[in-house]
Amino acid sequence: MSKPTIQDVAQKAGVGVGTVSRVLNNHPSVRDSTRAKILKAMESLNYTPNPHARRIAGGRSYTVSVMLPMVAAEFYIRLLTSIEETLGEQRYDAAIFPMLGRERLERYLESHTMPYQADGIIQITYNLAVLFPDGRMPTEQPVVLVDGKTDLYDCTYVDNYHGGLVAAEYTCQAPGEIYLVSFDDENDPDAIFKSLVFADRIHGFQEGVSRAGRSIKDTYFCGLQYHEGLAITKQIYDHAQFPITIFAGADILGRPMIDEAKSRGLILGQDVRIIGFDNQPWAAEIGLTTLHQPVEEMGAKAAHLLLERLSGFEGPPRQFCYQPFLIERASSLKSIPVI
What we know:
Elements (H helix, E strand, L loop, with lengths): L5 H8 L3 H8 L7 H14 L17 E6 L5 H15 L4 E6 L2 H7 L12 E5 L18 E4 L7 E5 L1 H12 L5 E6 L14 H15 L6 E4 L4 H14 L4 E5 L2 H13 L8 E7 L4 H4 L2 E4 L2 H16 L8 E4 L2 E3 L12
Parallel strand pairs: 1-2, 1-3, 3-4, 4-5, 5-11, 6-7, 6-8, 8-9, 9-10
Antiparallel strand pairs: 10-12
Helix pairs in contact: 1-2, 1-3, 4-11, 6-7, 8-9
């Protein structure tokens, strides 16, 4: 099968080649919805731009490889947009490499593959370096990790454990049973490596509930899809003794909890309290109490760190840790009606 072209991406996304080119070059005139559609088409076709095509005299391609789990999730779209905008300020482009599936991950372990031909690498969430004997990527180019922590490279990340503690402290202020619903990749036998993002949120919440002298009634794990969260929610509501509080490890899991509560006539903030994590842009619209994390700031900082390395900075690895904070909304407050 021939390698997909920019024309293939344009046809898949239903746009012109010029629009795809503007997305690849981070042009500000492209609407967010169009950008997301094009990125999704690139992911489905396994399309990546060729850094060699932009290589200029002096050995630079002015391209940065961005390796991430996927691009079709809102969290990653927000991070990627922030990274692209920051890189674009210095005329760098982002070559996107979604790490979907074991086959593609194993391909990226070879130092001659495309991600390592760029001027630098940004890895999102998953630290591929842990798969190598010395814990370092097979490249001399600078590497920055975002949404993950390492002592070997510059990184920007959120203190998810602390966020879990904050959620637990807030949860334990109210009476009733406590439930935990989250994504979990620690027990996924097909995962090549694990992310600590959700594990840290879970452990922080468990520790916080224990410190308060309370206990978690039940813990549920599921994928990060609306229908999966809805299925778990129905199980909880079918058997719960209200009032209850549910800590959802991600906002996307809190959304079906609110919808199902409304459909059953449950009173949010009284019969059921729901707490999410991420503070997605739509969380305020649906009244979801959540832990805020600065997604755009975290992505921009990672890009700045890489640009500094590309400009000659040779200091020790730098770590920037962001503290999540609680935002109260109608899903957990009695006095605020949800429409």
